[in-house]
Amino acid sequence: xxxxxVLPGAADAAAATERVSASGSGGQGNGENNDAAxxxxxxxxxFASLSTNIHPDDxxxxxxxxxxxxxxxxxxxxxxxxxxxxASF
Length: 89
Prior knowledge:
Largest sheet: 4 strands, antiparallel
Order of helices and strands: EEEEEE
Mean pLDDT: 77
């Protein structure tokens, strides 16, 4: 499953649908993604993922939480399952 965002205020939802469960380089995640939410201004999307290739600091196979910054096309690992330590940067 891929996390998608429909941009607020978009007249044509099909033209404004964007995959956000991607690495900073745009590569597709290799696992299930869910529980997505979008900020009111449409710039940030938070989602949970079992993917192991979205962020280089994700070295486990359990769900993690990410924030996708649509303006800068970056994906930030904001929490890591299992109490593996602080993954924000």
